User: Fold this.
Amino acid sequence: MSARFCLLVVAKAPVPGFAKTRLCPPATPEQAAEIAAAALLDTLDAVSATRGAVPVVAMTGDLGAATRGAEIGHALRGTTVIAQRGWDFGARLANAHADTAAMHAGLPVLQIGMDTPQVTPDLLAAAIKPVLDGTHEAVLGGAEDGGWWALGLRDPRRSEVLVDVPMSQDNTGELTRRALTSTGPEPGTLAVLSDVDTMADAERVAAARPGSRFARAVGAVAGRVAVR
Assistant:
């Protein structure tokens, strides 16, 4: 199938002591990094299997020092990797959209993170469908903590509004929706997902994906399973 859209993943190298630190305790820094690595790998599996998608990964951090760095590096071979750039997270998101659009002019962009490893190829394809069909110019998927997990844009230039949106707040999702609406039609609404900030979040997401890398990594914190 020919390329229909760019699937942009914004990711951070899972380095112990820097990745998923809010999971500590009960997780150790090494276990938290293992959970982050598993989340990224499961996400990349879903992205690579999404029909019509051109995978792009905006990466930050030292992959050489990361947990499962070699495995992640192998998974990234099937994607275009770009460096994150910007002074804060909002700027890095906007720049990632702009850089993706510069490489793949004319294609809509669906952007996700690595905190929702429960995503599937079908879910991702359904998320961008309203944009591809012309039903909506943009779509936004809210997260249970008040943020958002997915942003789809027919015109990636609209991501410029993210520069002025406060990130990591309990109303970031609503502020993002308002900012997008100020530049064009109100975005369509996607399903609400739980991202992974706390161990309770991780356990809830792991329960939705039994047998996944992520579920095994989360289970290992309680000694329920061995990571492999």
Q: What stands out?
A: The radius of gyration is 17 Å. Helices lie at 29-48, 69-76, 89-103, 121-132, 172-181, 199-208, 213-221.
